[in-house]
Amino acid sequence: MKFFPLIWATLWRKKTRTIFTLLSIVVAFLLFGVLETIDYAFAHPSSGVTGADKLITTNKYSITLLLPYSDAAEIHAVPGVAEVTWITWFGAYYQESKNFVFALPIDTDSYFNVHKDEFIVPENQMRAFRGTRTGALVNSALLKKHGWKVGDKVPLHSTIWTQKADGSLDWTFDIVGTFDARDPTQASAQAQTVLFHYEMFDEGRSFGKGEVGWFEERVTDPSKAADIAARIDALFANSPNETKTQPANDFALSFIKQFGDIGFVLRAILGAVFFALLFLTGNTMMQSVRERTPELAVLKTLGFGDGQVLELVLAESLLLCALAAVIGLALSYATLPVIKTALQGIELSPSALLPGLGVAVALALVVGLPPALRAMRLNIVDALADKH
Amino acid sequence: MLRQLTALLSMSLQTLPQRLGSSSVIVIGIAGVVAVLVSVLAMGVGFRHTLADAGRADRVIILRGGSDAELNSNLTRNDVDTIANAPGLAKDAAGKALLSNEIVTVVNVPKIDTGTDANVTLRGVGLKLTEVRPELRIVSGRMFRPAVRELIAGVGAARQFRGLEPGNVLHMRNADWTVTGVFESNGDVHESELLADADTVGSSLERTGYSSAIGLLTSAGAFPAFKDALTTDPQLKVDVQPEPAYYAAQSKQLSKLINVVGNTVAVIMAIGAMFGALNTMYSAVAARGLEIATLRAIGFGALPVLLSVMAESLLLALLGGVMGASLAWLFFNGHSVSTLGGAFAQVVFKLTVTRALIVTGVVWACIIGVLGGFFPALRAARLPVAEALRAA
User: Fold this and answer.
1) Nearest CA distance, A60 vs chain B (angstrom)
2) Hey, which of A6, A138, B96, B142 has its CA 20 to 30 A from A381?
3) What is the mean pLDDT of residues B365-380?
């Protein structure tokens, strides 16, 4: 540590060169931070459903095919299933198709039983919801986004479901309350959600009566989840509507995987960035040591050991890379809110930034080692005579 | 002056091998930027080519009003009968309208590379398929037969998803379907799909209506009259669009996202590469300080010195740009990938490195080279001759 001023001084021996090198490394780590957080978010999707105790049952052959509502009773009878609820894709938007709304017709009792303690709903609003046939609970972020208020009547356009009464695709709801996710990591996954009554939906739709999109189950013992899933699927094995039951987290992951190998694309970009960076930084370090040959020889003359000289050069490389990495990662941390708005519905975790520090150390060692070894092997007499 | 410039340039190029290490920083840094830029944009071009360029202006798609996508839409048999009688549709020799009533659904088929289920479009098509879509060509096996559970797979789908070779059997909803052939379709989105007979698909899904109707018009000019006839019919509630408009809307969001991401990443990388170029050129100028001062002393002008330094940087950047674009072309042109397209279904497309993309990449390289060379060139030109000579 006592050599820090020395290392610091040698680092800034050529100011412009160090600044440009530093800036290049900063840029590389800015990209690293941004791309890694996105990769992390895709690898750890938040499904809006928390907990290892949740299963999702869909149609085995296609997520667009419906399942009979009557399956719910059979699923509920499977030992280990604490509660089951049914939900249907409503495909809604508000006014324009870009205002996507994740509206879900739910069975109130079973839904809030499966998702016990996952939502914060004021008690009087929950009472109002139960008592209003056309009532809807709106995520508070969505309420704010569209400037709605509790008490408003809001029309939502379904791209799928026509109404029996007039064949219209526009459904009107009374906003009776708001809800928030108790788990903050689920907040962005639920930021566009509207919950309304299955009874109203089933009576109102012109086709598909008694059919639902998927089932969500809560199991009593998460360690038996796989076994329970297999039992549920066995119930419907030879029916026209075979099912596929999987843990909710796997379901979300397999959906995300359908977007393609995003991780590969991001890692390929980072690979190109760091390959170029290796040359740039390595070249700078090499140049800097070469220029300082006589100085290094003087250090050795003063009694610095070969190992100490090696350490000094490595420390300089480490200082440069770590300094730049910290600045770059801090910058990428600052951009997280911007990415979050650009990629709606994903949760960004700052913990994805931590591996960046490891990368910085690795980079420092790789680019610092060749010049450090050169410095270590310097022969004092030759170096002072400028014959090296 | 031109003679001075060429003399200087040839001198600096001759000494370039001595500065190989630091010069390669420019070449490799810029090659990286251009390779990433071209590859990501090639994804956007490929995706657009598959979706936005799908279809013909004289072919229309009719959906239930307000449905946005085929997967959500629902037309009754009455609806499609009315549509078949609308003016402007091309007719076959027997006077029947060239209209294909289609049922669109997605089925789970595992991806070859990950083994996880993906949503693949299964499209039930009408008997007029080959007349409505003349670009469709069977490349192996044979066409499916109506009224039996047979299907054909697009070449894109066959490449990305498991078990779609002719002769294979797919199990779907209590029934076995035989793959009888693989088809091509001008590289459009249908190559990501499975095609079968609409009524067979309908009966298997227990569905009585259709998702959409695809009609071939007598000409693109017949569209307004055709659309008016359908939208003014009080019995019908439909949206009528030429195919290109429908597919452009389906692909808009994703291709915009690809371009924004590609350009943002490339801009950030370009900034990094520019710092690298600045570094290299500053040290090149510093290493040649004595040489430049001598040249200035024997009468070379400041401008030729400035231009020669910039030309060197530009040349190195150009080399990097061409290298990067070639790498992107070599590794990724024609590389087949798939993603979730507009409507819940997989779209298979190929990365397409076009000439325009290569030009874009090389232009970016030149900009980085010029910017990275300018300030060092300025320093070289302003070098106080006497001081530089004395310092040596």
Assistant:
1) 8
2) A6
3) 92
Instruction: Give pLDDT tens digits for A130-152.
Output: 999 999 999 999 999 999 999 99
Question: Smallest CA–CA separation between B145 and chain A, in Å?
Answer: 22
Report chain A residues whose CB lies below 8 A from the CB of B108: 60-63, 244
Q: Do B174 and A242 make contact, defined as CB atoms within 8 angstroms?
A: yes
Cα–Cα nearest to A134, from A60, A208, A195 = A195
**What is the average per-residue pLDDT within A178-199?**
87
Chain B residue with CA closest to A35: the answer is B265
Nearest Cα neighbor of A58 from B112, B171, B108, B204 is B108
A258 and B339 within 8 Å at the Cβ level: the answer is: yes
Give the tens place of pLDDT for each residue, A326-375.
999 999 988 888 777 666 556 667 777 888 899 999 999 999 999 999 88
**In this structure, what DSSP letter does residue A94 have?**
S
Question: Which of B25, B73, B238, B257 is best to mutate for the A interface (most A CBs within 10 A)?
Answer: B25
Contact A34, B275 (CB under 8 A): no
In this prediction the ipTM stands at 0.79
Of A20, A160, A273, the CB nearest to B275: A20
Closest B-chain CA to A288: B283
Q: Is the dihedral of CA A69, A70, A74, A77 positive or negative?
A: positive
Q: Which residues of A, range 26-85, sit inside 8 Å of B by Cβ?
A: 27-28, 30-31, 35, 60-65
% of chain A at pLDDT higher than 90: 51
pLDDT in tens, B262-316: 888 888 889 988 998 898 888 888 888 888 888 888 888 889 889 988 999 999 9
Classify residue B375 as exposed, middle or buried by CB count within 10 Å of its CB (0-12, 13-18, 19+): middle
- The CA-atom distances, in angstroms, between A162 and each of A168, B75, B278 are 5, 12, 63
